[in-house]
Amino acid sequence: MSGEKFEVRAKCVINATGPFTDNIRLMDDPTVKPICQPSSGVHVVLPSYYSPESMGLLDPATSDGRVIFFLPWQGQTIAGTTDKPCKVTHDPSPTEDDIQFILKEIRSYLSPEVHVRRGDVLSAWAGIRPLVLDLSKKPKAGKTESIARNHIISVSNSGLVTIAGGKWTTYREMAEQTVDECIKSRKGAEEKLNAKYEFSQTDHVLLEGASGWTPIMYIRLVQDFGLDPEVAKHLASDYGDRAFSVAKLAALTGKRSPIVGRRLHEEFPYIEAEVRYAVLKEYACTAVDVIARRLRLAFLHVQASQECLPRIVDIMAEELKWDNKRKKEEIDNAIEFLNTQMGGAVNKESKEQRSTMSFTKKEMDEYIAKFTNIDRDHKGYITIVDLKRALKASGEATVSQEQLHEMLNEVDINKNGQIELGEYLELMSGLKTGKVTGSRLAKAVDREYEKTLSVDRSGGGL
C-alpha cells in the first residue's frame, strides 16, 4: 500500500500466483520453459428473471465449441463464458464482442418471449484462467492434450514449490496437496521446516464463520437485532456465525422496522455495518476492496456500486482517518475500476449509442406520427407482432426472430416485449445515424406511414 520495499526470509516459498506463475518461475530460474497458457474468460450478470431461483443450465458444446451457462447467483443471474488466449495483465477487461457473444448464445436457450437485451447487462468482467501444460505430456501443435485438466504441483531445484492450474471447486484440495509437497520437499534440505505434522491437518477444519451456522440462523438476527429479514439472510449466508459481529456494528435506522441496518442501496441487502466490519476485521484498505472483494456489489451491478461509493468512502474515512483529498482519490480510483474492469465503460458506450437522438423538430413530429400509425390500437406501445406486420407490408413476408433481435439490439425493450415511444425514437435515430444494424425496419415504417392518408390532408373525414 505504501510502496515500501523490504526483505522477507522463508524456509519454503510457494508460488501460487495464477496467470503470473511463469513470471515467478523465471525469477527463480531464467532457463525454465513457460508452462502457463493464459486464457481470458468473460462473464456477465443479468437480472434475476433470466433464471429460476434454484436451477441453472450449462451446455458444454456451443456453436463454436465453448461452454455456456447461466446460473442464479446472489439474487441475479450470472452467464458466461468466453475462452480465448490473452496476455497476462493486472487489469483484464471485457470487450463488447465478448458480451455480445454471450448474449447471442443464451438467446437460443430461452423462450422466444424472453428478449435478451444489451441493456440488461448489469456488469461484466474478464478473468484470466491460468491453464497450464502437463509436464508429463509432450505438447502437440493445435492439440489440447497437453493442457492439465486439473492442477499441477512442481518443485524447482532451488526448492520453489509451484501450484498452478486448478479451479475454484478444488481449492482446498489444492492447498492441502501443496502444503504436503512443501513439507516433503524440505525433509532433506539444509534448513528444515521442523513441521509439527507430516501432512496438512486442515481436511476437517471448518471455514471461518461455519462452526455456529445453521440454515435458520438468520431468524436469531431478526429477533435479537431487529434486522430486515432479507438483510439477515444475506448476513447469515455470507458471514456465517460472524454475522452477529456485523450486526453489532449496525446503526439505528430511525424506523419502526427494521430497527437497525441501514442499507447502502435500496435494491441490495448490503448494509453500512459491513463496510465498518470490512475495515476493522477483514483488512479492507481501499474502496475497491469493499465493493469488489468484500461486498461483491461491483460484480452484481456496476451502476449501483457507483451510487454507493460516496457513503462507502465516508464510512471508511471515519475508520481510517482519511482527509477529503484521499476520499476523492478513492472515489476516482473506484470509478476507474468499475469502468475498466467491471464493464462500466462498455455498458456506457453501448447505452450512448442507443440513446443518442439526432432529429430536427420536424423529423421528431414525423416519427411520432409514424409510431402512432403503427400503434393502431392506441396502446401506447408496439410489439414484435406489430413489427412483423410492418415488415410484411414492406414486402418482406418472412422475418426470423433472430433478425428482429438484430434490429432491436440497441434498444432497451421491456421484458414484456413492449416498445414504447421513447425506445422507438432511439431505434429510429440509430437507424438514421447508422448505429443500428439493418434498415429494413425504417423502410417498413415509412411504407406503413405512407399507406394511410392523414386526417389533416383528408380534411378530417373520408
From TrEMBL:
GO terms for biological process: glycerol-3-phosphate metabolic process. Pathway: Polyol metabolism; glycerol degradation. GO terms for molecular function: calcium ion binding; glycerol-3-phosphate dehydrogenase (quinone) activity. InterPro entries: DAO_C (IPR031656), DAO_C_sf (IPR038299), EF-hand-dom_pair (IPR011992), EF_Hand_1_Ca_BS (IPR018247), EF_hand_dom (IPR002048), FAD-dep_OxRdtase (IPR006076), FAD/NAD-bd_sf (IPR036188), G3P_DH_FAD-dep (IPR000447). It comes from the Eukaryota. Its EC number is 1.1.5.3. Keywords: Calcium, FAD, Flavoprotein, Metal-binding, Mitochondrion, Oxidoreductase, Repeat, Transit peptide. Residues 362-397, 399-434 form the EF-hand domain. Its cofactor is FAD. It is found in: Mitochondrion. One of its GO terms (cellular component) is mitochondrion. The keyword Metal-binding applies. Belongs to the FAD-dependent glycerol-3-phosphate dehydrogenase family. This is Glycerol-3-phosphate dehydrogenase, mitochondrial. It comes from Tropilaelaps mercedesae.
